[in-house]
Amino acid sequence: MTTQRTEPAQNADERTMLEGWLDYHRQTLAWKCEGLSDAQLRTASVPPSELSLMGLVRHMAEVERGWFRAVLVGEDPGPIYFSEDDPDGEFHLTEQDTWDHAHTVWQAEIEVARQNAAGFALDELSRGKSRSTDEPFSLRWIYTHMIEEYARHNGHADLLRERVDGATGE
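Above: the chain's sequence. Below: its structure in token form.
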């Protein structure tokens, strides 16, 4: 499988552009993981860090779930990988953790995110509120934050991929 990354049109309307850049960054993370074995995807960067490509994918599944389920529509879906006892559980991988499972969960969360966001206008406020300010977020803010979150972690993914097999790319 070859991940296709598509930049949004340079003259797209705002929503199309935000959704396009978010999808582009989702595709970038998938591309950085492409062609690697489960063992390679579980490979941590450098001690003491536990950061790995599979851990990043699991983390982004949690982030998608948090912003588009818990915050945007006010659901209480609960965590996927972390717990109160293990707040960084998405990064704590074992030999039993597989790419197929992590990828499937991540893609399912992306699909729910798209469905939930489709019911909101960019200026419409979330049903969930900020833990620090007790204020809701606009969908526009959530999209912008998600683009930032993926962009930052895709920088990590660049370095992780290079460490695993030497592959580099934009």
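The first strand starts at residue 125 and ends at 129.
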